[in-house]
Structure formats: C-alpha cells, structure tokens
Amino acid sequence: MRKDKMRMKKILAFLLTFLLCFGGGIYDTVPAKAQGEGSSVIVSVEKFTLGKGWITEPEVVPLLGEETVSSLLTRYMEQKGYPLIVNTNTSYGWYLSGITRGDAGGDLQIPDLIKEMADKDNKNLTDTLTNKYAPDLNEFSYASADAGTETSGWMYSVNNDFPGTSMESYTLKNKDVLRIQFTLYGTGLDVSGESPGGNVYDRADKSELFTRLAYINQAMDSWLSTEQDQNAYDHAVETAQKLNATQKEVDQACSALPDQAVVWPESILLSDSSLTLYENDPVTALDAKVYPKNTSFPGISWDSSDVEVASVTQKGRITPHKAGTAMITAMTQNGIRESCAVTVIQRPYTSIRLNKTALSMEAGDTYRLEASGTPENATEPLQITWGSSDSSIAEVSGDGVVTAVSQGTVAVTAQQNGTDIQAACQVTVGDAKELALQAQALIEALPKAGTLTIEDVDEVWTAQDSWESLSDTSKSYLDNSKVLEQKLSRCLSVIQTLTKKYENVNRVASLIEKLPSLSALSMTDRKAVEDAADAYDALKTEEKILVDAAYKKRLEKARSRMEEMVTEVKETKELLASIPNPVTLQDTAAVIAPFEKYESLDEIQKEQLSQGLVQRLMDALDTLPFLITEAVNAIDISASVRPESLQIQTFLQAVAAYDELKDSLAVSEEITGQMEQIKTWIGTGIHAKSGVSADSYWYIQTHAREPENLTEVEKALKKKYTNAKAPSEAWEISYTDIRDQSCYKQERNIALTFSCKDLAKMENPQVFYYSGNGLKKLKPQMDLGLGTALVKTNKSGLFVIADVPIPITGLDMKNMCKVTKGSTLALAPKKIPDDATSKVEYVWESSDASIVSVDGKGNVTGKKAGTAVVTASVKGQAKIKAKTKVTVVTTANSLSKSIKEVIKETAAYAKSTDQSPTLGSEWYVISQARNGMDLNDTYFSVYYNHLANYLKQKNGVLSESAYTEYSKVILAVTAIGKDARNVAGYNLFKPLADFEQVKNQGLNGPIWALIALKSYPDYQIPQISGVAEQTTEKKLLDFILGRQLKDGGWALSGRKADSDMTGMALQSLSPFYNKSGYEDVTKAVNQALDCLGSMQTKTGGYITMGVETSESTAQVITALTSLGIDPKKDTRFVKNGAWTVQNLISYHIGGSGFMHVKAGSGNNGGAAAGEVDGLATGQGFYSLVAYQRLLDGKTALYDMSDLAVKPGGTGDGSGTGLEQAEMTMDIVQGGGRNASGDTSGSKSQSPSTASSRTTDGNAVKKPAAAKKNEQEKTAKKKADEKTPWSFDGSDYKPKTKVLAKEKDTKGKENVPAATNAVLRDDKRIFSKAQIPYVLCLVCGCTVVGVCIYFKKRI
C-alpha cells in the first residue's frame, strides 16, 4: 500500500512539474488545511413516515478524515442536541435503536400511501398510535401488531441507495447524501418503495434536491430574496417529504429553486489563537469569522479536546474547569478547522498575611503564627515555608509555631512555595521589663490618631501586636499602661478604617507594580495586564481616587500598549485570512498588505497567529514566483511591442508583484535578468513616436501627433522675436501609463529628443513650448550632425522647433580680473544681447604688452606686476567692443606644514577626544568619514547606534525648533554610508518638509536643508500632508537667492556681507553652479565670490566682529572647494602671496586641533586666544578635508554621490551615549558663533530631557528657581533664533574633555544643548542686544565731556 502511494506521489509530482513548465499558466496552490469545497456530506434525519417532517433538515456536514456513517452521525447529532441511542450488543454490530428527543412534539399524520399499504394487508393503521418512548424516537416507539408496525425502526441511504451493511461499516465520501429515515411500516417498504413481491412505487433520486436544500438552509436570507424564490423553496420541501414523489416532480422542484454560485469557506479566523484562564474565571467568548466573507456556508461548529479542562458551547463560549490545556476547535461545514489553545491555571495568591506582625516574647515562650492569602477566590493551595532570620534568638516550626530562645530581635517569615510572595513578623525576645519598655516606646512613637495615614499601618500594627503579646507581668512594670492602651485603641480604630478603605487599592497597586516596563511588555503579559485592569475597573469611584497617579499612568500605558499589540495581531489575522487561494497576479495587493503587517509584528505576536494563517501567506509567496516566471517566459522580445496584449498586461502585473515583494520571492536571477531585458524592450518600443523620443519610465508610452493649426504659435513667435521664422517642426506630445492605461503626467524632467532634418541649416534653432500661458523658450542640447534637439522637461502639450536669428549689438566683459605672473587666463567676451546668434571673430589688444600680453583667442599672460587694459572688438565692427582691466599678481606662498600632515594630526586628536561619538559629534564624524577613514570602523558604528537609540527614545524628534539638527545629522549618516531616509525607521527628511519650520531659523534653515538635500542624488523632500507650506528644492533656492545683499554676500542680519554666511550660502548653491537652467544661481555665486575676494585680509584670512577667526576662513575654504575653485590658484583669494589655506594652517596647534583666534588677538565673543577650541577644530578639520579632496580629484565634502548608502539598523537600545559622553562638541556652521542656530555639538541633555545631571551621571532634581530660569532662557532663545549673535555675558564652560578635565563641575547643571549662545573659555564682552546700549552710553558720556570741555574754554 505504501509503495502504491509513493508511486502515485511520483506520478503526481511529474504531472505537476510538466504543467508548471508547459501548461500555459494553470497553477493551483493547495493550503495546509482545505481549499474550496473541502470534504463534506449532506445529512438529513427524517420522520416523513410519521408525517412530522425532519428531525434535522438537510445540512452540509464536514467529513473528518475517513468517517463512517456511525461516527459522523454520532458527532453530528450530539452537536445538534439529539444524542443517539445505540445498541452495540447485536449481531449487526453498531445498531441505531433510537434518537433522544427525536419525537418531541406534533401530531401523527401518517401519509395515505402507508395507510393504503396497511389496508391491503388488512392492518388497522391509523393516526391514533402513540409513542411509547416519547419524546425519544426509538425503533419500537409506534410498534403495534394490529397496525402492522412491529418492524418499525431506523434505516439509512446514501445517494438514494440502501447499503446492506451496518452504519459502522459504511465509509462516507465527499459529496455523499446521507439520509437517516424512520420506517414505520413494512420493514422499510414505506421509505424504499421496494419489496420482494414488487415495487410499491418507483423511488425517485432526491440526492440533488437534498443537496440544493442543504445549501439554501445555510443562508436562507441570501438565497430566498423574492416571494417566487420562497414559494419554490416551500414546494421543494413538500416534494422532498413526499415519499412517492416521481422523478419528474423532483427534477422540476429542483430546477425551480434559485441558483447562484456556491462560495465555500477557505479559512477561519479566531479572535485568539491562545488563551490563559483561571479555573474560576467567568465564561469567555471566542469569536470566529469565516472567509471569504461572502461564503455560502457561514455555519461553525465548536469542540473541545478536553471538556474536563475547558468546555465550549456551539456559540464559542468557553468555560474553564480545572488546570490543564484544551484545544478549542472551530470547524466549517466543509471541514476547515482552526484551534485556540486554552490553558487553564490555578488562580494564584497575590499576597500573604500573618495574624501577627510583631511579637514580644520571653525566652521559652511559644506562639503559633497563622498565615492566610489573598485574593479569597485563589484556587492554588496555600503551601507555606516558615523561616527565621536568626534561629538562636527565635525558632519557627514547619507549622508556624515560634519559640523564643534568647534575647534579641528576629524576623520570622512565611513564604508561598515557588513564589517570592511572603509576609514577616518581627519577634523580640527579652525579659518582661525590657519588652514592656519597648512596647511603650513603640506606642508613644505613634502619631496622634487624627493624623494617621495609610503609610502608618505597619507601625500601628507592630505596636498593637507587641502590646498584645506582653504578659501581665510585663505590663505591670508600666505606670501609664491605661494611657498607652487608650492611645493604641484610638490609633488601631483609625488604622483599621484606613486599611479597609485601602484594601482593594493596595491589591490593585500590587498587581500594577508587578507589570513589566513598557519597553519589555509583550503579549505573554496579557493575562497580567488584564488582571490589573479588571481589578482597577472593579474599584469604586472613591477608591480609584486613592490609587497613586503613577500607578494609574503605568496601567494606562500598559493597557494601551497591550490593546495595540492585540489589535495589530487581529488586523494581521484578518489580512492573512483574506488572501485569495489560489493567488493570482491580480491579487498582488491582497498579498502585500498582510505581508507587510506580518513582518511588522514581533516574534511573540507572530506566535499568536495560527500556522494555517501563516501558511496561507507562505503559499501565496511560493505561488507568485511561478506566476512571475510564467509571465516572463510568455514574452517574445523579437516581436513588436503591443502594450494592450494579454502577454504584456500579465507581465506588468508580474513586475508589480516582484517590485513589491522581491525580497521575499524566490525568483531566479535568470528571470530577473529577463525582466530587465523585457522592460528595455517595452520602453524602446513605446518611447519613440513620429520623430520624438522620450526618456520616460519604461512603462510610459509616448504619443506625438501633428498639430492641426499653428497660427497662434506663429503669432506668438513673431511678437516675441521679430526675426523668427515659421516653425519647421511641431508635435503635440502626451503620455500613457500602460499599466492602467491612464493619462500620465511626467513627475520629473525627462530627456525629450526631437528629430528635425533642417536643424543644421538654421542659424539659431530653438525649441519652444506653447500652452495657454503663452510661448516658453526651452534650453535644448543640439546635435546638428544628427539633426536632434534634446530638452529636459516634464511638460505635455505642443512643442515646436523654429529658427530665431538674433543679431549682435554689443560686447561685455568683466571690468577687472587678476592673473598670476607667468600664468595665462582666458577671457571670453559675452555677446549683447546674451542670446545673440551672429557668428563673429574677435580682435584682441593690450594697452601694455610688457605687463599683459594677449593672443588672438583672448588668452592673456601676466608678464610682470602691474595693470593693463585688454580690449576685444568684433572684426569688421570695431565699434562693438569691450574692455577689462587685468592686474598681474604674484603666486601663493608655500605652506609651512603639509595639508595631509595637519589633517592627520587633527584626525588623531579628534578621535582621542571623541571616543564615544553620539548626537553632537556630527562634524567630527563627517570629517573622519570624508577623510577616508574605514566606514566599518567602530567609531562610526558607535555613533550610529547612539543616534538610532536616541531617535527611538525621542520618537524620531531631534529638535522641536532647530531643524538644522536634521540637516546636520542627514550629512553625518550619509557620510558613513547610511540612508538618511531610514535611520532606525525614521525618514530624517520628513521634518524638513515643513517649510515654515525650516525658515524658523532664518537663513540657516534653508541653507542647511538644501545642503542636506543635495548631498546624495536619490534624496528628495517627501510630500507631507498637514504642513502649512511644503518644502521644495525651488523654494529653498528662491529663499537663499532672495536674501543676497547688494554687495554680493549674505548675512543673518544687517546689510553688510558676513564671510561665514556667505561661505555657507555658496556651499548650498554649489550643486547648481554653472548648470544649465540655473543661470541666476551662477550669477549670484560669481557676485558672492567677488565679494569674498574683496573681504579677504592681507594675511589671507577673514574677520568676524573686527577679529580674524579660523572658522570664518574654514567656511570660505569649504565653499570654494564645493565650487571646484582652488584658492591657491584663484588670484581673487591670494593677497600678496598670502592665501586661505596658509592662513587656516597658521591656527593649527601641533599634535592637536585649531585655535579660534590667535594669542594676543581681540575677543569677539569666542574662545580664549591661542588655545585649542572644539568649535574651531571641527570646522578647520572638515575644511582641510574638503580642500584635500579637491586636490585629489574627489567629490566635494557634501557631494556624497561617491558613496552607496543603505538603511541602517534600529539600534540595540543600550543608550544614546549622552548619559556617559566623555566629550561634547558645539561645532556649528559659522566662525566663532552658533550661526546656524542649531543645537549640534552639545552632548549635554537638551531641555526636553527633563532632568539635569551631575558630572558623575546621577540625576538631580532642579530647584524651582533653576527651572524658571531655564524657561526664561528658552523663551529668550526662541525670540533670538533669527539673530546671528546671542551672547548673554555668562562664563564659558569648556566643551571638550581636554579643556574641561581639571575643572570641578560636580553638582552643576550642564549647559542646555539648545542654548543659542556659543560659549567660550574666556569672559564674554557683550551680547549683540547689549551693544547698542553700550554705544549709546559711550556716546552720551563723550557728548557730556565735550560740552564740559568747551564750557570751560569759553
């Protein structure tokens, strides 16, 4: 038998493989349990011969494996409430002799057919017979010799045949129609119509009719929606009960019944996969849903594997009985089952009480302690283990008898076995007088009765029990015993009242206290949370007020989180149950949602899902690769592309399924490779049309038709361009998404290529876009050889190519320029107008060739120091000319120390001071990463882990107001190869989508948001609903360009350029410099470069507030390198040989970092002169790294397109690094100040972290005055966020371990990270807000002094 099965399995496997490979796409995945109809039979239990209809009407009943008539009937009738009466001691074996309550009512109405049979046999059969065994219907219930019914009993037929075997011998098969029929007369003649002497009537086959009735009976409302349907059903019932109905009558009744598609159950979803109940818990409801929801058979039967442990009603109501485990199973009518594991446990004790909390005993005395437990309805046995903390003072026996041994105090404990629940009694052993005095002291120490609180309960009971246990001899030593007893009595009365009042409250508090922390809470704690919640909900209103607020909050959070977890599991179950079976490519969306939901669950939540539901998902994920493979193999890429074809439409569905689930689908590399080839084939076939080719997504079809009328276009051309000629070519462009045939609007600029045969013949070919808003000239890339024009656009509509000649009217060159002696600079005049198309030849001339020479191509060469004027004129049109003043300068000085050496020393110093990088270490992280440090170094992994933990701790919030925090962290994580769109699950660009918040820091916000956005090619600002103004790249650009000052630079405030802000603005604009379509940016950048050149000092550096700082120079270097400008070679940034990098290196202190200002320099509100400063070190470090990258031919500092980023992890929860940081940094974008307004760099806690910390990490509570002072500072900070300076005159607290290690800061609060002031090591001079007042005071004093002077002179 086993070999035959194995052979059959091999044959089936071969056929399945053949069908999968060659069968044209017929796949049928079978789930773990049952699919479609499953295995079921139709069961009908009848008493038609009595004229009483059915005991149970035709019904679909599941087959559980290989079931016999007897086993199925026993199970089924038990569930229906009609237990069978069976006789097994017969020659027939299992014999049905009766059905309990099978004849509970109704009058006997024997069909005339049977009466006629009896009459022919001379029997007196009437309706006066009575049931001897009522209400049961036994075989001889109506037995009567006179009536001829002494052979009555039960018979069964299967598919209209009466088997000749017992019920226990007949094995049922799927779709069998089983009829259990009571025969009254003729030993079955009445129900079969057959007898040895000939048929009484021809028995019709009613199997189909009974099947149809069974289907309708399961959901009558959905079948019998009209009066006609109801009448047809009633007639069919009448026909079914008619013993001698003809086959024609049966068939007509069957065909008249309403017909609809039968939808079989495919799965069951239980509300719980497991339950834990106490032995004496009330009835618990288990809900079940049958899927699909439109099933024709919603009926469910319930069963328990062990009714002694837990029983279940047919409505899914579970009653626990005793400890153990039972499987509660719900089953559909076609045999699909789902089970819930119900674990019944003993209700435990939550606390233990002793009858005494204190005993005063003399040596040799004994006392029996008694223990009791709560709650009163606990079912576990109270098993106490007794113990003494010092048996040399007092012993305790196994049954709680305490024996005093010697003088002293000892704790006697009672502990419930196997738990940590215990109670204790303090036993004091001494002589009579000592015990009396001790009891007196305890009573006298009690507060007055009127002032007692619940916290005094232990002290009162200790005093009471100590007093009660005194002997009369002991009490006789006290003169004031009456007074003591009176006080104790009053206290005891009050405390008993309080104890009763708080009894339930304390029990709730005990349950809540045992709950795990929110972060450790899992669904295994569901019972504990429910117990605590039920206990709290059971409290009276006045009792709930007494529960500590902290306990309430803890319970509320635990309950809320548990509800969330339960809901997540429930939603996942419903989604899993709704997965179609078998799945098709059209069902991809129905697989994606449950898959994503399933993956979001933790492991314990996943354990709550039944294997059947999970298998349903696995089956779908197993099936989709086959369907995808078939769809791919069906494509012939040698044929022409027809997007509407079934093969391509199926392929599109396959791609959608793969793209959404590729990480979970086992699709071979060969197939994925074919998919890419097919995409290319489709794209090539649908992108080009009528001389137009669009570089769209592969699934976007291009349409190009010839416009009917160009009159309006020609008018617009002539109006704007006098010399324009008629359009040579024109196309009406539109697009279609072939995936859903919808009209498509390009979401990004694409390359749109037009073919024009006359292109090379035109003087100035131009491409225009025409719409209702008029004519717009585009900026094409022309290839005259190929005759093509390429534009980048996302527009649909009318495009035209026309020749637009524009004559030259003048020339323009920059007014002045510099060239290094011995080097050459190319001059390039600009035509006026800019778009002039006349082809011209220039004539060049120098006013002094000994200083500057110029060749015929405009290349000027510096000969010697001095200035000469170079003139360019148009050949043949001498009046059209332009001049520029060329100054010859000397070359840049050599460096005293190599750049690489300085970088190496600074990198080592930075790493030594920042050994546990965390939030605030970003500039060091960026510097080290862009300097080439191994991205797998633990330095970076520690930083990322701290950051991820912080984000999880703060729910993704880095700052409520300083949004430059997000920009800075984006740069840091990108630099170490992590995707800023998924840091611990958070998209750091999401906060930057709120333009109002980004602008909240003035110019800084948009600058750094744009730098972050352009740091990696794939980054985009997400579209977020609910924000007042959505951030876009264009808005950021416009904001920055709109705040350029007249002198060409930028500043946070005022009308004079600031070198720091100008440098940062240039860094943000650098990705657009000299790029087509961004001419306004290029113009603004050139103006800013000239401005920076003019601001440079003779030492090659830059000044802030009258003092040269290293940070200002660092920002300029970073800006120039981002633009691809070498400050050593650009004469604008060389002053008598002094240049920026040389100046910056002069601030470096060997073997460490950078100074803010040099020794002896004035104070501009920054760090101490001549000392290493963390701010200056960070900026000096990354600016030199930026310059070295320029020299090495690498991408700019913030251009991280050279990296491959990927999502990082979620952190390990070990901490943020802020708790034990060894160093803090306050590196910001600006020289000597917090110009960006961000809070970066400080690892001290921000105001949002609620508590300040001492230097040893211990939390300290802030005094009220300190809290108020912080609130005032925070309010002032928000008011000053858009100002460049906010020094408040307080002392500088060193922010690096090196500078701060000798200072004793214990007990002092850390400087809040969000403070807007940048602190330095020396005293500050004045805040910007104070400067005007100081100046007014000085001016006033001066005026008074002058007046006094002249008055004396007069």
Overall description:
- The strands form 16 sheets. Strands 28, 29, 30, 32, 33 and 36 form a six-stranded antiparallel β-sheet that branches. The protein has a five-stranded antiparallel β-sheet with strand order 26-27-31-35-34. It has a four-stranded mixed β-sheet with strand order 2-1-7-6, sandwiched between helices.
- The protein is 34% helix and 18% strand.
- The protein has 36 helices and 51 strands.
- The chain is an alpha+beta fold.
- The model is unreliable at 1-36 and 1222-1330 (pLDDT under 50).
Give a brief description.
The protein is α+β, with helices and mostly antiparallel strands and 1354 residues long. The protein is built from 36 helices and 51 strands.
Task: Decide which structural class fits the backbone.
Answer: alpha+beta
Q: What's the end-to-end separation, in Å? A: 137 Å
* Low-pLDDT stretches: 1-36, 1222-1330
What's the total helix number? 36
Strand content is 15-25%
- How much helicity do the residues have? 25-40%
Total beta strand runs: 51
The radius of gyration computed from the alpha-carbon positions, rounded to a whole number of angstroms, is: 47 Å
Overall mean pLDDT: 85
Largest sheet descriptor: 6 strands, antiparallel
Shape: flat
